[in-house]
Amino acid sequence: MKKETSPARLQLHNLHLAQGERTVLEHVDGSFQPGAITALIGANGAGKSTLIQALMGELRPISGEVVCTVPKKRRAWLPQQLALDLTFPMSVEELVMTGSWPSHGALKGYCAAHYRKGREIMARLGISHLAHRPLGELSGGQRQRALIGRTLMQEAELLLLDEPFANVDSETVEILIRILRQMADEGATIIVVLHDMDHLQRLADDVLMLTGGHCRWMAPSALTHSQAPAHVVPFTLGEHHVGTA
Amino acid sequence: MWELLNAWLVAPFDYGFMRRAVVGGLALSLAAPPLGVFLVLRGMSLIGDAMAHAILPGVALGFLLAGFSLPVMSIGGVVFGILVALLAGAVSKMGGQREDAAMASFFIISLAAGVMLISIGGSSVDLTHVLFGSVLAINSTALLLIASISTLIVITLAVIFRALVVECLDPLFLRGQSRHSGWVHSVFLGLLVLNLTAGFQTLGTLMAVGLMMLPATSARFWSKRLEGLIGIAVVLAMIASTGGLLLSFHLDIPSGPSIILLAGAGYFFSALFGRYHSLAAKWRRKTAPLSADPST
């Protein structure tokens, strides 16, 4: 389940996480390899968002540690509830270009080559025709593609996505699955919170399941077999549509 | 006709105080509206108002110490404005209270303290002067100060522009990208205080925020792009400050309210006839649903 071919970019050592005074997760261990897509699963309230917060350095563990060798500038987080202010007057192209921050910072002007790169990324995502469209006028799927465009521009090496396929059209799902796989093939470490079994089977190399305050690593194939343990059921049979696209 | 235009638009500037006032107004019109645009976009429209009150005790102390000396009053205003912003931030972090709630508490205390200080050391005329401004008081030193502060604001905004935009849109992304992301907000608040202290001489502490906010809120009815919003807001502010001064001169009314009321008229006009979200825009969409382009 965990490939040991190259050193892990992200490691968790006996992590104990809490929200306020309530312990959410205990004894979380594991390592995330470059090039691997890990599906993070669990029922609502199992601690997926808490773990992601800790992985991004936004939540300090009570004990244990998160060791991440990816520079902060090359980490990207696409939250489920978008922290984006969609009334902000910015176009798709401008959003994608903000991904140049690691190389350009706050002051350096964008050169023609960077604009070209931005346009290539938008073409890959099928949003070239939306380049000048304000963010507020995008559909959920178009917005998700634009945000992935920013992470491509950022050349993200660690990518965390919280339910990226929620409320997006099937064309976007196909494009995102293809792009995420390409990013992984190029060496990115990707962690995706998923609820849909079909998406999980198509995308994930590893599965990290959170249940009862603990974690369990498994192969995606372990989830498809009908002998999936009963404690997996709360995740798969919750309010979410198991096995549907 | 020409003579009438000359008498209304040109002749007032034969007076030195009017020339200084108009230059000061134009300088403020360059610096204030971009700050207002960002305040509106960040959903912090009322913070400007709060900060305008917050500078009052400092201005009052400066007045008590040195009389109507713009540099001293400005320094007092800047110090108090930053102090209140820091205190409000600290209280909200300490007690888990939202920053706007802490700010609301501090600004009303500041207003009372400022009015009290001026009343102790001056007359009701002084109080009116500080609260509502007077163009007659702009001398060369004051003008130099206003122009310097406006220049500083425009340059600093240009430097932090990209960071400010990214922070407005997605603060989390900026936090991941820059260790100095926290500074962007602080520098922005600092510029706000500086702008208000530069504006109070012409407009008064209470009216200074008007030249920042009204052109910015009006511009939202005319553009959907950031550059457009800033450009339109600056032009509207320039028209309001120059037009307001002329009205003040001809009708013998206070300059601050005159400038702000003209900007207010611009706001109502925009809300009625603007290109986006205005009454007329809604009416146009209702009458022509088949041909209406939703992106315009």
From TrEMBL, chain A:
Keyword vocabulary terms for this entry: ATP-binding, Nucleotide-binding, Transport
Entry-linked SMART domains: AAA (SM00382)
Statement: the UniProt record of this protein carries the keyword DNA damage: no
Cross-referenced InterPro entries: AAA+_ATPase (IPR003593), ABC_transporter-like_ATP-bd (IPR003439), ABC_transporter-like_CS (IPR017871), Metal_Ion_Import_ABC (IPR050153), P-loop_NTPase (IPR027417)
GO molecular function terms listed in the Swiss-Prot or TrEMBL record: ATP binding; ATP hydrolysis activity
Pfam families the record matches: ABC_tran (PF00005)
Domain ABC transporter: 10-237
Family, per entry: Belongs to the ABC transporter superfamily.
PANTHER family per the UniProt record, alphabetical: IRON TRANSPORT SYSTEM ATP-BINDING PROTEIN HI_0361-RELATED, METAL TRANSPORT SYSTEM ATP-BINDING PROTEIN TM_0124-RELATED
Protein name: ABC transporter ATP-binding protein
Native source organism of the sequence: Vreelandella salicampi
UniProtKB/TrEMBL annotation, chain B:
Location of the protein in the cell: Cell membrane; Membrane
Membrane-protein topology: Multi-pass membrane protein
A matching Pfam family: ABC-3
GO cellular component terms, A-Z: ATP-binding cassette (ABC) transporter complex
TM annotation in the entry: 20-41, 72-91, 103-122, 142-161, 182-200, 229-251, 257-276
Gene Ontology terms describing biological process: response to zinc ion; transmembrane transport
Keyword annotations: Membrane, Transmembrane, Transmembrane helix, Transport
PANTHER family the UniProt entry points to: ABC-TRANSPORTER METAL-BINDING PROTEIN, IRON TRANSPORT SYSTEM MEMBRANE PROTEIN HI_0360-RELATED
Family to which the UniProt record says this protein belongs: Belongs to the ABC-3 integral membrane protein family.
UniProt-recorded name of the protein: Metal ABC transporter permease
Source species taxonomy: Bacteria, Pseudomonadati, Pseudomonadota, Gammaproteobacteria, Oceanospirillales
